[in-house]
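In the design runs reported in the main text, the only information available to the sequence generator was the tokenized backbone. The following block is the verbatim input for one such run; it is reproduced so that readers can re-run the procedure and compare outputs position by position.
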């Protein structure tokens, strides 16, 4: 169970970093709740940190309540999100590199 929570925490960090990479590149956040938090905060990073803190509290709650199945499902969801984000960043970087070489 402890390893599931550590995996969840690690995936939250990766999601945070890939989201920051998108924001730096000017890509709008796809999740409407996160988009609202980013726009409502005095700084987009603070809004994102608020959302990630809430996600960590949810993960910790699942850990404390021994909600193993839910934590596994959230890990799978965030693993897919992070993989999608990385793929989009790589493809976007390749497109930029290709345009730059013309």
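Verbatim output:
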């Amino acid at each position: 169970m402890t390893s599931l929570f550590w995996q969840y925490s690690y995936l939250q960090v990766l999601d945070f970093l890939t989201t920051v990479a998108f924001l730096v590149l000017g890509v709008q956040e796809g999740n409407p709740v996160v988009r609202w938090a980013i726009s409502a905060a005095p700084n987009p990073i603070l809004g994102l940190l608020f959302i990630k803190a809430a996600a960590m509290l949810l993960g910790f709650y699942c850990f404390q309540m021994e909600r193993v199945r839910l934590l596994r499902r959230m890990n799978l969801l965030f693993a897919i999100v992070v993989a999608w984000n990385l793929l989009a960043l790589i493809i976007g970087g390749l497109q930029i590199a290709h345009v730059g070489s013309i």
